[in-house]
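Troubleshooting entry. The earlier prediction with pyridoxal-5'-phosphate gave an output that would not parse, so I re-checked the input for stray whitespace and re-submitted. Clean input:
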Amino acid sequence: MTKQARIRQTILDIPASRIRAVYNAGHRIEGMIPLWAGEGDEPTPDFIRDAAAAALARGETYYTPNRGILPLREAIRDYLKRAYRVDTPLDRIVATASGMSALMITLQCLLEKGDSAAVIGPIWPNGCEAIRALGAEVRDVYLQQSEDGRWVLDLQRLFDACDETTRLIMLNSPGNPTGWVASEAELRAILDFARARGIWLLSDEVYGRIVYGEARAPGRNHAPSYYTLAEPDDAVVIVNSFSKSWSMTGWRLGWVVTRPDLADAIEKMTEFNVSCSNAFAQWGAVTALNEGDAYVDGLVERYSRAADLVYQALAPLPRVRLGKPQGAFYAFFALDGLQDSLQFCLDLLPKAKVGLAPGVAFGPAGEGRIRLCYAASLPKLSQALERLVPHLK
Ligand SMILES: Cc1ncc(COP(=O)(O)O)c(C=O)c1O
């Protein structure tokens, strides 16, 4: 007699990505304009690709330190000095194999079964599923959308969601999918609360540079950030990624800045997750940071124009509720009367040849909404909007 070998129930209970469901149904349709994923349609710029290709050609094909190669950690330090005007000692920096890997390994270091994490949502689902995969509980604290479409955080509701089981608060500003950008005052209030309670703050700042107008930190070209607000001994983890600001989604590289003792734990756990990131990709990332400031500025400028384009096309439609995007590169709009966002996105594929992400992919509070990623080049985006608008009327 054989006995059935089992998969952990916790993992079986995690739903498959509903963005993938739309992608799987639509990616082979000819002429499709895909706006479902969090990436643009232009490849990583040549100067970064050339640096990685040169590293590959000279034989950078070995394992690297779990914290990443030293030139990369130095480049991250120098970048943070230029962009955020902060001094970050190297013992606080870990280069990781993607923002997602940084999130997962950080959570592995901080959470165990029975713990809870308060999460400001709607939020990109992967961080929440990572928390659940570890057997911990997600306590969703949803932003509210005001009549003019702005996203608003109720700090008291966040604090009320925390109790003695709560080990961390996770937030993502600028936010995917909402485009919400926390103010400095909000970030300070959350930090004060976390300090008083002795809990961690996991701040996902992968869109930290993609921020528009008044949502920027005063006098800066970045969003309000714990890079500038946290003290070195605060229990704060800042996660970053090369994917968004340098158009390097396929490279799988990111970084973490945190307290040195947690940085050591992340280094240790990196061994048991990925045993270091790709060597020649890391060399490309060194060049991205050291020579990429103008590229990032240009990209943000383009995303800002794209945000305007989307807002002008969609916000006037009577069924649509959309605030002016403040950051990241998504419009997460409510569509009056929409009951099943997944079905709507699937139906749209053959009809409009535009691929969108269903709101329900971001949790039950996302139902009735659609996420459109506006990182595509402007002509493509205009074409997508022309095709889409008749279906939103
Ligand atoms: C909010 C947020 N955090 C983290 C990531 C992960 O980025 P990556 O794993 O590509 O570095 C993404 C990607 O979409 C994201 O939207």
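This one parsed fine. DSSP finds 14 helices and 15 strands in the chain.
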